[in-house]
From TrEMBL:
Residues of the DNA-binding region: 29-48
UniProt-listed Pfam families: TetR_C_1
UniProt KW keywords: DNA-binding, Transcription, Transcription regulation
Record protein name field: TetR/AcrR family transcriptional regulator
Domain HTH tetR-type span(s) in chain numbering: 8-66
PROSITE patterns noted in UniProt: HTH_TETR_2
Transmembrane segments: none
């Protein structure tokens, strides 16, 4: 038999399969990836540096959905706001990936390049270098927490029919409109951006609302 025209195994297929398993069951193992691809576990290790390498392939795949062109927008706060919204959408599509990726060091070159772009944006408009990663980390905390919220039930508080002492909570819950998670995210993002405008960008134009 001749060699197959399409390789049976490559890094792209490994990453896609690991993410597929993660979406389905909230976890994956390298042997599971191998079984689904119909190869031996050792064959996967020929393409990646262990489980950590597979995690980085998952990170690249999820992060590829983030629109990095948003970081080229002007003014800077419009860019950062648009990036945050795109970042949230990318991870909201794969909520099981969030705990895994946020507890593993970032090594994927394509993802590091995106961080470099965000850092350069903040430095170029005058953020002190010692505050740049704090700003980015705080924004990630907001974004990823909201991405998890999007995966939660729309109603997160269940009050018994006869529940004394929760009248105010019941009234507030009854007043919630549709899109609770989206409304909460926009409120937090707006407040975050308003604070960022006070942290040091001097002489750099910003949008009136940061939208």
């Amino acid at each position: 038999m001749g060699r197959p025209r399409t390789p049976l195994l490559d890094r792209e297929r490994i990453g896609a399969t690991a993410l597929e398993l993660l979406d389905e069951q909230g976890e994956f193992s390298v042997p599971q990836v191998a079984r689904r691809l119909g190869v031996q576990t050792g064959s996967v290790y020929h393409h990646v540096d262990g489980r950590a390498g597979v995690i980085e392939l998952v990170r690249e795949r999820v992060s590829a959905s983030i629109d990095t062109a948003t970081l080229d927008l002007h003014p800077w706060d419009t860019a950062l706001t648009a990036w945050a919204r795109s970042y949230r959408a990318a991870f909201a599509a794969h909520p099981h990936a969030i705990p895994l990726l946020m507890t593993s060091p970032v090594r994927a070159p394509k993802v590091l390049a995106q961080y470099e772009q965000a850092v350069r944006l903040l430095l170029d408009v005058g953020f002190p270098v010692d505050r740049v990663m704090t700003v980015i980390t705080a924004l990630e905390n907001l974004v990823l927490g909201s991405a998890l919220d999007l995966a939660a039930p729309e109603t997160m508080w269940e009050l018994p029919a006869d529940s004394p002492g929760t009248e105010n909570l019941a009234e507030a819950l009854a007043a919630i409109g549709p899109g609770r998670a989206d409304a909460a995210f926009e409120l937090a993002l707006g407040a975050f951006m308003e604070h960022c405008r006070t942290l040091g960008p001097s002489g750099a134009p910003s949008s009136p609302s940061g939208a």
